[in-house]
Amino acid sequence: MKKLLVIGGAGQLGAKIVKQAASSHEVYATYMTRRPPAETHESFLLDKTRKRDVVSLITKIKPDFVVDTAALHNVDYCETHPGEARAVNVDGTRNVAEACQRVSARMTFISTDYVFDGTKGHYNEKDQPNPINCYGNTKLEGEKTVEETCEDYVIARPSVIYSWTPMEREAGSSSGKPMNFVMWLIQKLREREAVKIVSDQHSSPTLADNLAEILVKLGDSPRTGIYHTAGRTCINRHDFSVKIARTMGLDESLISPITTDQLKQLARRPMKSCLDVSKTEQALGTKLLDLDEALRIVKEEATAEMR
Question: Domain 2-161+207-232+275-288's class?
């Protein structure tokens, strides 16, 4: 079995990767607070900003490939804490990349659609990034760090990652962001709380389960470079919310549209950051899920947990 190390193995995406790969790989994972899933071969407490610890761990495990999911991804928090954002998303990423290069491990870095300015939409891998907020800037710097440091790497760009996350694992991050938008919305609607959701920000919502599957396939492949790994559906956040409510049998009348100007978010958002995933689908011979398919999976997982 190949050895896989998941940096951030207790997070939403990291936990899905651990479960996806457990039957085919010897999976190791790192964490900061919550423990990774039980399927992990062994787990380690690790702050990726501590270079000596990162190098020591990766040298000890000697993984065949590493997936770095650990990031500071609260967009508004990054805007007001740029030093902290850079320490994690750039310097921490460099620590992982340098350690991977040292032991000849393949590295997969999880980036974001926010490396684009959102003026065009349906971006492919050849389009020029132009981030408009601190978060996007640090993730683009992270991409460049991986490209410059690693000979064997993949940069994956998803968009608005979501999933059904078991209730006991659902928790906010240290920067105050909920683990994922779908779980946050379901909780609000179950509590009969009215919510206002932006209707002018378009993205490609990405089911973490599907993303994990794609990342493991990319990790096992010999391909290098940048791959867009998002859902196939381009949709605005309000319409996405309505689809969630309908799928889960919740009251969509509690959801009302609002514009970005009205919301007054601290950091600027790209208005159309949808991603073209055709390169990834052709490379792997696998289709990424559209939104309706993905939300059916969320509902099935939610139903199974509630039994």
Answer: alpha beta
